[in-house]
Amino acid sequence: MTNQPTSAVQPDTLKENKKTINSFLSESYSHAKKQLEGGVNFIQDSVSFIKDEFSAIYDKTGHYLNRMAMPVNNFLKDLSQIENEFMHEISKESQQLISMNGHLMPVEQVLAQPMEENY
């Protein structure tokens, strides 16, 4: 039994068609690949743009919140520092003594006594 060609096309025409079909498929594949790469690049650029925009919005929001809260924070911080220093001064014992009527007395005790008024 001999191998009968299943195609009704002549062998010379078949060889030409193979080259044409091969070049058509190669060009189609290259074109589709370029379109896919372009689409992927577009998607990456879009995602990058959205990410950058969110980052910028986050930074601006943080900046504005800091600007709004800064006076309050500084005010509270200053009061708390003043309070801490005041409590520190009250808690430590005074080593300064003043002579009062021939006796050495701590400054706090002297300041707590009634004083004369000068008009």
Describe the structure in your own words.
- The protein is built from two helices and two strands; from the N terminus they run αββα.
- By secondary structure, the protein is mostly helical.
Question: Topology of this structure?
Answer:
Elements (H helix, E strand, L loop, with lengths): L10 H81 L5 E4 L2 E4 H6 L7
Antiparallel strand pairs: 1-2
Structural descriptors:
2 strands; 119 residues; mainly alpha; rod-shaped
What is the H/E order? HEEH
SS summary, helix count: 2
> Could you give the order of strands across the largest sheet?
1-2
Number of strand elements: 2
* Head-to-tail CA distance between termini: 142 Å
Task: Detail the poorly predicted runs.
Answer: none
Largest sheet: 2 strands, antiparallel
Give the helix level as a range of percent.
over 70%
Strand content: 5-15%
Calculate Rg over CA atoms.
46 Å
Which shape, going by the Cα principal axes?
A: rod-shaped
Overall mean pLDDT? 78
Structural class: mainly alpha
Short description:
This protein is mainly α and 119 residues long. It contains two helices and two strands; from the N terminus they run αββα.
